[in-house]
Design brief:
The complex is a heterodimer of chains A (817) and B (244). Chain A is α/β, with parallel strands linked by helices. Chain A has three domains: 1-221, Growth Hormone, Chain: A (Up-down Bundle), CATH 1.20.1250; 302-346 and 372-570, 3-Layer(aba) Sandwich (Rossmann fold), CATH 3.40.50.150; 637-817, Up-down Bundle (Growth Hormone, Chain: A), CATH 1.20.1250. Helices cover 59% and strands 9% of the residues of chain A. In chain A, the strands form two sheets. In chain A, strands 7-6-5-8-9-11-10-12 form an eight-stranded mixed beta sheet, with helices on both faces. A four-stranded antiparallel beta sheet of chain A has the order 1-2-3-4. In chain A, a hairpin with a 4-residue loop joins strand 1 and strand 2. The radius of gyration of chain A is 28 Å and the shape is globular. The two termini of chain A are 32 Å apart. Helix content of chain B is 38%, strand content 24%. The longest helix of chain B has 43 residues, at 2-44. In chain B, the strands form two sheets. A seven-stranded mixed beta sheet of chain B has the order 5-4-3-6-7-8-9. Chain B has one domain: Rossmann fold (3-Layer(aba) Sandwich). With 244 residues, chain B is α/β, with parallel strands linked by helices. Chain B is built from seven helices and nine strands; from the N terminus they run H-H-H-E-E-H-E-H-E-H-E-E-H-E-E-E. The termini of chain B are far apart. The radius of gyration of chain B is 20 Å and the shape is globular. The chains are: A alpha/beta (817), B alpha/beta (244). The interface between A and B is large, with 63 and 50 residues.
Chain lengths: 817, 244
């Protein structure tokens, strides 16, 4: 095959394929979050992405044969991607895998392994097509890589749009068709011998996906999810299902067995909740919509620990409800006749349930003149300068007991020191900030919240927070009350009266007596009180230091509020039967460690395995230069790790700035991939117009700029975040794009420049390098979270700079060898 | 050769005929093994449950009830392992140690009446039935409730009365109860159940997923009617500072 026959690479095909592949990757996370749980989705997808690494090994070994038939191999791999993307998911869904049973039943591991293998296939085919194209059109490496990145960037946005308008199973079908269709666009670039047969095959493949029976694609929820169990109850009916890129929302009615969702309701309550509709997110984490017939049906809201601020404040005129969800806290405020209520809920679908779809059920008409719901995150809203008598944050969906540890890896900017500072700023004089969380045993989240609150108050210049805090707990919720000034004796009395009348225990109150801390909800030790005492009064805070969980204050830099894992407890954890230890530590962090271990082993094998075949090639000069191979490994590992480190750090920074995690992911992925693609195309232009000696110069400049820009961002971003957060939405999105552009542009150069170098010396190792980079990307996503938990996202970005420096040094060493 | 062939067939037939007996013996042996694992579990967690052994009667009941009858056919080989097992409908049969712990926490006495919310496999009710006069059990999933009722009848547990209903309201016709066990996920302690609990009675609520009981909440109503709750860890994870 010669360049004469194929004058240009199939760039449009590469573009569509990359877009489909990235969209498929994001879609899988969504699909598995619905079927199982999102920590499982994270694990499976991470491993499946090693298909890129496997492809590198495969092509390294079979490169000659594959390149000899490039045209048909390229087309075949694209079609196979499309077909396997949908068929592998269907098969995986049929496997009787139960993520909850994995610690008890060894056969679950076999099913998990089979899931990995099946889901690896689509990524393997994509990587084959892309890597072979890079090898085949080696004189256009940056160009092909650029279209790959830009396509992926568009794919990141495309999938969000598709998920907004269609259900995930439909999107799966669409992406499979898009994937297969990518092959059609390659036909004009390639010399296919049996063109008509090829076209017919492609069209038939697309047709097969179109006519696939819908029931094969229907999502089969784990039978252990709340929604699946609820639907087993007689006469329950699914009233509404709405899918978005963030979650699937299901509304269920159960006329025979009423839902009675009332977190931590006091046993002294004279009545229970009224008729309710259950709302599930991704088939779990139930919240409820109350059927409001008259005000008396809301009376039970007064018997929850979260009602405390309404009893302490002397006459609130307005209230701000943060994360209002399906409106329980709004009803609590209504019950207490608050004249004006602002509510904040980032998921518009949840708000629409109470203001539109079930408006009459919820009695929205009688609320709409005094309640306004804002679709923004609590942090985003808190950047404004309004003042409220009460700022309320209620418990989120799902009890801590049911989901303990599952959210450990989810970052949350709603409960950081900076967040609490911004909420405190919203308080009018004598205003109260109230935060209610589910409790867990042993206590974790609530203690961390207390430490975070104290830290926020001290940073706000309140030197004696012990006088400004009240803290009470029911059997499964705890409410923290904060004030910018000392609680008055009258307010302190009101806290005592409220708690006593509802059989709630005090956890902290100015002048609290130890016997008040453990009267109704008995703990072996009054840990809430002991923790509060230590955090407030012990300069060494010895309690937190010795506690088995990490209950240090959460910050914007380390926003893992739900992670309590401590390495110092690991030994004790491992000494326990696995099941017992895991149930106490939560599944999130161990999942991350297991995923890292699996990915490391797989990456190690995939990186080293091809070397055996390279070594067997006696004619290859590179086989004698093990130092060169070492430098190739270091270079591609380093830039693979570093790219994702920075990209993930930016997703976190953008989550704060854009107020919506969904926007943050879409904007960061899109901006980074597109601008990196442009950076790659820029490198291509320079390489075309100048001599090969430009490669080290461009690389040095790129690495220097990456270091410089990163350091500037670390210093400047916290200073300008507040200003950007207060801007209108579109301005925030544009700002995020502008912020990402320069860094992403220069980050797009090292990979194609490295490949261009390799092309000059050892072109047969290009797929191997591609595979190493793929493996590194998988490891990077896991390592970034582990690192961020320990050293924060600024630390992760600095690590990336160091890695780029290492890459540059290894490139220099490679050239000198 | 023919004689040897016949001998083999006879042996095979004898093995087949005696398999029921062998299985029964095997289950008894497995139950003994299960009891010793429970005993080990009690020792490991003694710090949190405030005792070094469960009540003898409770252990005797655990030794009497054929747990393998309460698990699906395909799972029977694991019936006596100290682990929860799926029973369909998104439900599980709890880990034997947890069943024993919950039973022990209820402090069952002959002559008592116990209410169970969430019949599930029926195993917990069967264990309780060995210790008290009458067990009333409510299941919310109709199909599961029917299957379990039939099973309990087949196994002659005639002091267990079941019904398909909403457990939130308890079973007022038979109230008050000496103890109540709630195995359903709940966001608050149902007031009707507290009302149907006798003074001096105890209620146990496990919290967590079907496969991982994270803690048990013990609700106690003293003789004056005052309610307290107590959280009990079923596992040996030291939750507090080193000194505790």
């Amino acid at each position: 095959m010669t360049d004469k026959q194929t004058p240009s690479p199939p760039l449009l095909s590469v573009f569509i394929l990359s877009a489909s592949a990235l969209a498929y990757e994001v879609l899988l996370i969504r699909l598995f979050s619905i079927i199982h749980w999102h920590h499982f989705a994270f694990m499976v997808i991470s491993i499946a992405l090693l298909g890129y690494g496997a492809s590198g090994s495969f092509i390294t070994v079979f490169r000659r044969r594959l390149l000899a038939h490039y045209d048909s191999v390229f087309i075949s791999n694209i079609v196979l991607f499309g077909l396997s993307s949908i068929s592998c998911f269907i098969v995986v869904q049929q496997l009787p895998f139960n993520t909850l049973e994995i610690l008890w039943d060894s056969s679950q591991w076999q099913r998990l392994l089979l899931s990995y293998l099946l889901l690896t296939l689509p990524f393997f085919f994509v990587a084959n097509a892309l890597a072979l194209t890079i090898m085949r059109f080696h004189q256009h490496i940056p160009q092909v890589y650029g279209f790959d990145l830009i396509g992926a960037g568009i794919g990141a946005v495309l999938v969000m749009v598709l998920l907004q308008i269609s259900s995930p199973d439909t999107v799966l079908r669409v992406l499979a068709i898009c994937g297969i269709a990518a092959s059609l666009f390659a036909l004009s670039n390639l010399s296919i011998r049996h063109r008509q047969i090829t076209v017919v095959t492609i069209v038939l493949s697309m047709f097969a996906v179109v006519v696939l029976p819908q029931q094969w694609l229907d999502l089969r929820l784990s039978e252990y999810k709340g929604l699946a169990q609820t639907l087993l109850i007689k006469d329950t009916a699914l009233l509404l299902r709405h899918s978005s890129p963030v979650s699937q929302t299901d509304v269920v009615q159960s006329p025979l067995v009423p839902f009675r969702h009332a977190p931590g309701m006091s046993l002294q309550s004279p009545s229970g909740p009224p008729e309710q509709l259950a709302v599930f997110r991704d088939g779990d984490e139930m919240t409820a919509i109350d059927h409001v017939s008259d005000i008396s049906s809301l009376e039970y809201h007064d018997y929850m620990s979260s009602a405390l601020p309404y009893h302490v404040h002397s006459g609130p005129q307005n209230a701000l409800i943060l994360a209002s969800s399906t409106g329980a806290q709004i009803l609590q405020a209504r019950l207490h006749e608050i004249p004006w209520i602002d509510a904040v809920e980032p998921d518009k679908q949840l708000s629409l349930l109470i203001t539109d779809v079930f408006a009459d059920y919820y009695d929205w008409p009688s609320l709409k003149d005094r309640v306004r719901i804002h679709t923004i995150s609590p942090r985003g809203f808190a950047a404004a300068e309004n003042k409220y008598d009460l700022v309320i944050m209620g418990p989120s969906g799902g009890s801590a007991g049911g989901s303990a540890g599952v959210h450990a890896l989810s970052s949350s900017y709603d409960y950081t020191v900076e967040a609490l500072q911004s909420y405190l700023k919203l308080l009018a004089p004598e205003g109260l900030l109230s935060i209610t969380l589910w409790t867990s045993t042993p206590a974790r989240g609530n203690l961390k919240l207390f430490a975070t609150a104290v830290s926020a108050m001290k940073k706000a210049g309140l030197n004696h927070p012990e006088n400004n805090i009240a803290w009470i707990r029911s059997w499964n919720t705890a409410t923290l009350l904060l004030k910018n000034t000392s609680l008055t004796p009258e307010e302190i009395n009101k806290v005592r009266e409220f708690s006593l009348s509802r059989s709630f225990d005090l956890a902290w109150l100015p002048g609290i007596q130890p016997h008040e801390a453990n009267r109704f909800q008995l703990l072996q030790e009054p840990v809430f009180y002991l923790a509060a005492q230590s955090i407030l009064e012990d300069p060494d805070n010895s309690f937190s230091g010795q506690y088995k969980y990490d209950i240090q204050a959460s910050t914007d830099n380390i926003p893992y509020f739900n992670n309590y894992f401590r390495w110092s407890s690991l030994k004790e954890l491992l000494s326990l039967p696995a099941q017992a230890g895991i149930s106490m530590i939560g599944v999130g962090y161990p999942t991350l460690l297991v995923t890292l271990a699996q990915a490391s082993v797989a990456a190690f094998v995939l990186i080293l395995l091809p070397l055996l075949f390279v070594q067997s090639d006696k004619n290859n000069a590179v086989t004698k230069a093990s130092g060169r191979r070492r430098n190739i490994i270091i270079y591609y590992l380093a830039i693979g790790l570093a790219f994702l480190f920075i990209e993930l750090a930016f997703i976190q920074k953008f989550t704060l700035i854009l107020s919506q995690p969904l926007y943050a992911i879409a904007v960061a992925l899109c901006a980074f991939l597109i601008f990196s693609g442009l950076g790659s195309l820029y490198a291509e232009r320079r390489l075309r117009t100048e001599t090969e000696s430009i490669i080290p110069v461009l690389l040095r400049r790129a690495v220097s700029l990456i270091g410089l820009i990163t350091v500037i961002y670390i210093a400047v971003l916290p200073l300008i975040s507040g200003t950007i957060m207060a801007l209108p939405e579109i301005a925030r999105i544009i700002s995020a794009f502008i912020l990402a552009a320069p860094l992403a542009f220069v980050m797009g150069m090292p990979f194609p420049l490295g490949l261009a170098t390799l092309q000059q010396t050892s072109p047969h190792l290009i797929p191997w390098a591609w595979g190493i980079n793929g493996c590194a990307s998988v490891l990077s996503a896991i390592l970034a979270v582990l690192l961020a938990i320990e050293i924060g996202f600024n630390g992760v970005m600095l690590c990336a700079v160091v890695l780029y420096l290492i890459a540059w040094l290894s490139h220099r060493a490679y050239e000198n060898q | 050769m023919p004689i040897k062939h016949i001998k083999t067939r006879v042996i095979a037939l004898l093995v087949f005929l005696s398999s029921g007996l062998v299985m029964a013996d095997d289950y008894a042996r497995q139950r003994q093994q299960m009891l010793s694992e429970i005993e080990d579990g009690v020792l490991t967690t003694s710090k949190y449950i405030d005792k070094k052994s469960f009540d003898m009667q409770v252990m005797q009941a655990m030794n009497t009830v054929p747990r393998h009858e309460f698990v699906p056919e395909l799972m029977r080989f694991k019936a006596y392992e100290n682990q929860p097992l799926p029973i369909g409908y998104g439900q599980t049969i709890s880990q034997p140690y947890i069943v024993a712990l919950m039973t022990d926490l209820l402090q069952p006495q002959p002559g008592q009446r116990v209410l169970e919310i969430g019949t599930g496999s029926g195993y917990q009710a069967a264990v309780l039935s060995q210790l008290v006069a009458q067990v009333y059990s409510i299941e919310i999933i109709e199909e599961l409730g029917k299957a379990t009722t039939q099973l309990l009848a087949r196994l002659d547990y005639d002091n267990i009365e079941t019904r398909f209903a909403d457990g939130y309201d308890g079973w007022s016709e038979h109230a008050p109860f000496d103890s109540i066990i709630v195995t359903a996920a709940i966001s608050h302690i149902p007031p009707p159940l507290v009302q149907q609990l006798k003074k001096g009675g105890r209620m146990v609520i496990p919290v967590g997923t079907g496969f991982q009981t994270q803690y048990l909440t013990l609700v106690e109503k003293d003789m004056s009617g005052t309610i307290t709750t107590r959280q009990i860890l079923p596992v040996s994870f030291v939750p507090f500072t080193g000194g505790h």
